[in-house]
Amino acid sequence: MDNNEIRIRGTLVADPSRRVVADGARVTSFRLASNTRRLDRGTNEWVNAESLFITVNCWRQLADNAFISLHRGDVVEVRGRLKQREYDDANGKHVTSYEVEAYFVGPDMLRYVVSLSKPHRELPAVPEQAQDKDEVQEPAA
Q1: What topology does CATH give the domain 5-112?
Q2: Which residues of the chain have a pLDDT value below 50?
């Protein structure tokens, strides 16, 4: 187990966004709000305490599946590696941010009933030199 492995449960605060990076890899990102709850002994009721907001990044097939499946308000569990990024913002201020590079995203099955389906796979592109249908070879199974 990595020392920077994290598991977090929370609610998506917005719909996921998708982008393609320079090497062609697909990335889906979303913001997750994780709320701590505590028992208020005075009222004997559960109340929300502090909230943690964190960006989650999913890559490749997980990115595709998350983008298609997740929406604002969904409660999910995320497992991944905690990453720290440092940069200077537009105003020249030095910023440190933390993100999760996810390798697992799943629904909270206390709240949802889930139907599973396998993702559609895209076929490889046909080579440009194969102009005639007879020249195109079927992909190996």
Answers
A1: OB fold (Dihydrolipoamide Acetyltransferase, E2P) (2.40.50)
A2: 129-141
